[in-house]
Amino acid sequence: MKIIIAGAGEVGFHLARLLADEQQDITLIDTNKDRLAYIENRLDVLTLNANAASPKALRQAKIERTDMLIAATASETTNITIGLIGKKLGARHSIVRVSNAEYLSCGEGDFSLLELGIDELISPAALVTHEIERLLEQSGVTDSIDFGDGQLKVVGVHLVEEDAPILNKTVIEAAAAHGRKLMPVAIRRGYKTLIPRGNSMFKLNDFAYFVSSPQDLPDLMKFTGKPEVNIRNIMIVGGSLIGQQSAKLLSDKYNVKLVEVNREKCYNFAERLPETLVIHGDARQVDLLKEENIDEMDAFIAVTGNSETNIMSCLVAKSLGVRQTIALVENMDYIHLSQNIGIDTLINKKLLAASNIFKFVRKGEVLTIGNLHGVQAEILEFEVKRKSKITRSPIRKLGFPEGAIIGGVLRGSQSYTPLGDFKIEEGDRVVVFTLPDAIRKVERFFK
């Protein structure tokens, strides 16, 4: 597949890295020579130093032979221009990164960019907002991804409770003690991601990831030492676009306080967010948090434009007893560091956007793609076709790649956590966790 990416920022770079691993034909366009040189030294992609909104530059990149054009610069107007011109010049499919939420929720009679020829719109702010909502629906987890309309869930748990029953047990011992089928799909230990096998052991401070049905999830949470917390009161720090959208969305379900350091913005938010209590102040100050009853908060969400502020305020909230903390970070290098020092979930909007765009490249047998925060791996949901290799034998006899594991199977209205003697059938939907170097091998089983 020939793909043009306009914009060599973090979204473009991460996306190019994902696609380069897939051996796609990638051309990356940007006006910044230094950034392109950095990428050329690290990725097997073509680069073009030019303004991607220029028809001349797009023609130079062979836009007429392009299967997918991805406009992912930092400028919304530039992205829209690139998408429209690129489609006019022959790109088969265009994906445009936008920041204005109005473009995503056009009602009847409203103007829509899709009517002009752009095929897909991606909003990093909207993706983060919905990610936050999903994490709050299942307290105690660092990640939560639904498959098959919620029939199966992949959840991440930080094993920090020293009395958690699962600790210091192998996968086999844990499955026997749990009394149910236990399906771990990954363990992140420090900076390393492991595919668990029968003799793999769960240790203190591990991030463990499991596939579970909704009805089995409460038992799994108890087994991993996570008591159920009923989320009622939430504090959001930062009146950014994400902060505003999150407050608006969450106020329908929870009691929400929004803390913003800019006084004028506070007056504006108070008018626009009538269901939210808006507070003027600096959330890094312990006295302010105590005055606003931080001890009564069930969740603390920091989404200012400054990663360090978000990290520090979450750490303060955690030290004051808040059970669930979520921080927005711009620098992807912070993700491992911050989780290891006590913050429950780190969200990077550029990583979310790149991963969301990536799923359009994989359309076909792949129904859904999920990513875990801080884990360099993918969760893929495949629909099994007739005569696929995956249907030929029970799982244990397939020779499935070492760097991957089958975590769940959806068959009609039933969900299964398959063991070695399970045989996959045509029409099944299969959830696979895979490290990057095993993706190609996994895909061959579903062709």
UniProtKB/TrEMBL annotation:
Pfam family, one: TrkA_C
SUPFAM superfamilies cross-referenced by the UniProt entry: NAD(P)-binding Rossmann-fold domains, TrkA C-terminal domain-like
PROSITE patterns in the cross-refs: RCK_C, RCK_N
GO cellular component: plasma membrane
Start and end residues of each RCK C-terminal domain: 142-226, 367-447
Stored InterPro entries: K_uptake_TrkA, NAD(P)-bd_dom_sf, RCK_C, RCK_C_sf, RCK_N, Trk_Ktr_HKT_K-transport
Coiled-coil blocks: none
Molecular-function annotations in GO: potassium ion transmembrane transporter activity
Keywords linked to the UniProt accession: Ion transport, NAD, Potassium, Potassium transport, Transport
Name the record gives this protein: Trk system potassium uptake protein TrkA
Organism of origin: Saprospira grandis (strain Lewin)
